[in-house]
Amino acid sequence: MKEDFLALLQERYPKLSKGQRAIADYLTESFDKAAFMTANKLGRATGVSESTVVRFATELGYEGYPGMQKAMQESVMNRLTSVQRMEVANDRMGHTDPVTSVLQSDMDMLRQTCESVDREAFRAAVEKILGARRIYVVGSRSASAPASFLSYYLNYMFDDIHTVTASGFSEMLERIAKIGREDVVIAFSFPRYSSSTIKCVQYCRGAGATVIGITNSKLSPLAEYCDLVLLAKSNMVSLVDSLVAPLSLVNALIVALATAREEALAKTLDMLEKIWQENNIYERRADQI
Q: What residues form the membrane-spanning segments (predicted)?
């Protein structure tokens, strides 16, 4: 957290060199802005070299500048307003091509997610979902997108799916009123974390349900109330939340569940295909008829 980082700065301050103290002073005064600066840009802002910035991160106990920057970013992302997020993102992107900048950022999020997902937790999540009496999928505001996407495919495989994407806790509470110990909750939350989602998950956990959280960090407020946590990196692109990595993780979850329920799912899809064809649900090209 920010307070911990600043406490660390204060603790190490007497042992820092003159240049490193300049960095520490700048971070103390402009923490939210500095968290998204490159080592080179932070060096220019404080009048020191990039190598001094890197040594500063090492002095604080991080393996390098990326580690320190990640710690700072995770502590500030939930506090930035939409306008501040847009300003920070625009400052980071500068005059670069938005397509290149955004796609490269998303690819980096995918790489980090692939490296950080706990495979044991993932397998345990699949088993819990397969054995559930009812499945509740929770996600509000921008997180309602991956929640709705997951629910869409779960409905092909399970009989009792409840999608909870309301923005207010009172409406969420109405949807989860019957939740119990045999049920599973799959909840999504990313910066800026929705307070209604956290309250909803807290209620579900209190009712004895198994809670599977899909979030960006073990330090997120959602993770505190989860039995299993699956990490998917999320980055802000201007005022937009990048959900590419969370959606990719959802795809993996759907594939794993579909594989486990292959025989039953095949029968369901075969029945649906007949219904779709009879009612012209999907367009067919002339060469497909």
A: none
191 secondary structure, DSSP code:
S
Contact 228, 185 (CB under 8 A): no
Nearest to 234 by CA among 247, 224, 222: 247
Where is mean pLDDT largest: 67-71, 159-163, 278-282? 159-163
Longest CA span, the chain:
78
Question: What is the rounded distance in angstroms from the CA atom of residue 102 to the CA atom of residue 137?
Answer: 28
Q: Note the residue count of the chain.
A: 289
| pTM metric for this prediction | 0.70
- Report DSSP state, residue 223: G
- Residue (of 42, 48, 86) closest to 68 by Cα position: 42
Residue type (1 letter), 266? A
Question: What is the token pair recorded at 235?
Answer: 């980055």
Could you give the CA distance from residue 35 to residue 85 in angstroms, rounded to a whole number?
Answer: 12
Whether residue 1 has pLDDT greater than 50: no
- The set of residues, in sequence order, having a beta carbon less than 8 Å from that of 156 and lying 6+ positions away, is 265, 268, 269, 272
Tokens representing 287? 């060469």
**How do residues 29-87 score in pLDDT, each as one tens digit?**
887 778 878 899 999 999 999 999 999 999 888 888 988 887 787 666 656 555 555 56
Beta bridge pairs of residue 210: 184
Asked whether 227 and 210 are in contact (CB, 8 A), the reply is: yes
Question: pLDDT grade, residue 252 (50/70/90)?
Answer: very high
CA 215, distance to chain mean position in Å, is: 4
Which candidate, 154, 123, 122, places its Cα nearest to that of 138? 154
Structure tokens at 22: 């300049």
Residue 2: pLDDT above 60?
no
User: For residues 88 and 86, what is the distance between their CA atoms, to the nearest angstrom?
Assistant: 6
Residue 211 structure tokens: 């809670």
